[in-house]
Amino acid sequence: MESLSSLSKAVGWHRLVEGYPWYNRAGAFPLPAYSEFMPAPQLGQLPAGTIDDSLFSEADPFGWAISELEEEYQLKPGLEWIARHIMSHVVKLGQGLPDSFIEGHKKSNLQDNPFWPPELDLAARAGTLGHERYVSILPMALSPTQDDKGRLLWTFFGGSEQGPEAVFWKSFFTSPEQELPAEAFTGFISRLLSEVYQEQIISPPSRLLDLGFRILPTEAALTNTPFPAWAGEFLVDDNATWDKLRYLLTFRPFSLLPPQVRANYLAGRLHLLPFPGSLVFWGMPTYGSLQKELPLAGQIPLLRLVPRRAGAEGVRVPQSGWLHEPHPDVNPAEIQKELLLPQYTRSHRWDRNRRSDDELALNPRLEKIARVLFSTDLEVMGLYDKPMARNCQLWTRNFELLLDGPNAKPEELKKAEAAILAGGLFGYRFQFPAARVGQHEVYWHRPVLAYVSASGEIRLLPDTPLGVLTAYEKGRPELHAPVELWPRLQKRPLYSSALSGFHNPHDHYLHQTPLNLVSLLDAWHALGERPLPDSFARHLLWISKEMTLQEWQAAVQASAIDENQARRMQTALQSLLEELGQAAPFPEPLTYPFTANRQFEIAYWNDIKTLAEGEYRNKDNADCVQNPASSGQPPCTLRDLDRLGDYLIARHRASIQQAGMDGRAFCGELPFRWKTDFAFPLYGGWKSNQENLQHERDILVVIPGKDHSKAVVLADHYDTAYMEDLYDKARGGTGARASAAGADDNHSASAVLLQAAPIYLKLAREGRLEKDIWLLHLTGEEFPADCLGARHFCQAVIENQLKLIQDGKEAIDLSATQVAGVFLMDMIAHNRDNDRNIFQISPGRTPQSLQLALQAHLANMAWNGAVVGWNESPERKACGPGRRSPDGIQIPETAAHPSLFGEIRTKDDPQSSLFNTDGQIFSDVGIPVVLFMENYDINRSGYHDTKDTLENIDLDYGAALAAIAIETCAQAANSFAVGHTA
Description:
By secondary structure, the protein is an alpha+beta fold.
């Protein structure tokens, strides 16, 4: 990865990243709450300033890399699933059977549709198209989108707005002027004719000509789409002799074909490729009308044929349909009931689901679309939902645009809500924006060829042309002038072997062994293609804690489909991993002398106690919420979050003063106001922000190193969540929104920053820090604020606007300091009862994040290496494993220091909790980040409930994890993490 600030080339993907940085000014990079608007994922050029060399290559300016993992586990199975759904409707059309999804209300989609004129409709209804194999060349518009679980999946947007013909022919290019060889086309056509019509092709292309295969292009294609030079051999025009033709490749509307061609086809003497009925989606006058206001509306007709799909694999499919609200001018009896899809299943990142789960299957909670889109009623939103209109497009029965959610302003949202509430019939599609490179949205237009076999099965032709990618300037898609790129399917032998050559029946999760192999390969590439430390490789693997690296390698060999696969992979693994005995020694610990003792544990416990169970009670940003009278809760009049922030600032300033660092170290606030598209007047904190009575703030401590140009950040969030069990009436709750004590979530982390400050200040005073260290208390991680502080901080960093305020005085400008990495802590002091002494090191998606994870791993190993000696001290020698406080008042007794197993959970690990924290925001903008978190049990009590108290804190475990986090940050500030192989 490298900076592109000096790049000035203007072809291919260089055009997409030209002009970086785009966001270097105030207000240029707004970051809405993901619960209010799920934005486009940023790919290629990340806002924080790096280019993803796994996607783009300097040697290939027109290429877009598609990884083996994407192709095998997302695209292949997902596109087949989608194509089968579409084909079921296409076949019904060809057989003359009614199909509301294609026909639309009162068959409006087929009225005046040039691809389905009356003569073709009559033939279909008469059953005279018996020779049809329904060959459909379906150009699908795809792009990666992100969901609330942090999963980046290819998503089906519908049919290509570029149209089937242009996409098909551009599939036979690799750049604007570079054609594929003729054999690519003739081989494809030969496979098609052989598989679908059982033709025996011996020597194309002459044999194709002898079979009566020809191409009839449209005039627009001849004018606007470059045809490969070799296609000329097959081209015919309207004056051709048609008697001997058996196969005609044409995308012309059936009504515009020469009369003899139409007659031969209807008589069964000629096969049209593709089937004319498969093209009707690009001739619907209804969506053609909508396209005047919504340029990408041409995608929608194909999307409507496919049901919503989510989950961790395959291709994501957003929901689309029609909704009806009562209106005197709309007769419900006239509505096509099959087209109505008036309910929606919502999900959110706080669902107690794993990232590998299909939330649609696990969450049957359906709500009316109108409520999902617009309602701010507290009962409708519950604890974790907000209006989703920003991620939706709406249009009227007459196909007039009502709302383009991703580009809507607040007043447009209000206008659309009023129209829906007034009643009528409305079309919609949920629109999660396409992946963005710089200022451009990118779509892959990939043709999928499907047909019906002689036995009546829907089948897909493998190895079809791959299409083309188009990039449009965001919000202003000019369909006639996109930036074009071409897909490059990666075919790296080791990756391909990992994904298809190994099957372990004992795997606990789907594809566990292949994904483990890919994780090692990815890490090797990300860390400079140097051998991985054995211990690091072992902690990357998603296997039982008791299994050794050598035992896993043996299990991999045993799971190989053939011996050659096993042998090649074993050789590869040996080259990826360090040889035994080659590990470099760990550096001298910087902070363990201050943290591996009882004094640190007592201070840590007392800080959690003060923060969680002292005088600070209402610690959610939305406090004070007007709880329903039935809840029995007294009116809330005070938001303790502000006083808690004052306490944190006072503590840090006292530490600075005690260290003699006044004037060199600073503590202040990063103030901002809570802004939303919808109004939430019953959230007291939100209301006070709008009335300028209150503001939100992150709290920042700046501890100087020798080099002020870079800073390493240790962060937490200091707000707390509402208690689900107190709210949820199904669990005996009353509907009250009251803040949790937050002993674990997240005062177990806030206490670490309080304890870390004196340690880092001492190192700074002694000249033992190379880079600056920033201690960052983030606000508003919990709902309804939803990563509010992290979003503000990242926005300020990207826009180069970061300024620290001390007591309302003149700002200290921090914009010249680069954030080199963020170590985020969220819930670190609950040791899981059924899987003890494990914690997660979950990096973001950049290679730099994995380098930080390596630093965390090394600090973990250094801790474990010293534990035996520490436990031989008189203070610990007779101590056993830690036990929790029996009442939350008494401090737990001294216990043996535990050895902790830090599992490195990368982006493909379903147990990574990065998505459920502020860490996702840092990762998305490209700031290197690692999450420290306990071995989070999504179903345990003590999370977002009344039991998040000191009784659930494991002091020995939490103090050990705190010590590892403090040491990691100190070592990273001294540039030890990157590239170290120990």
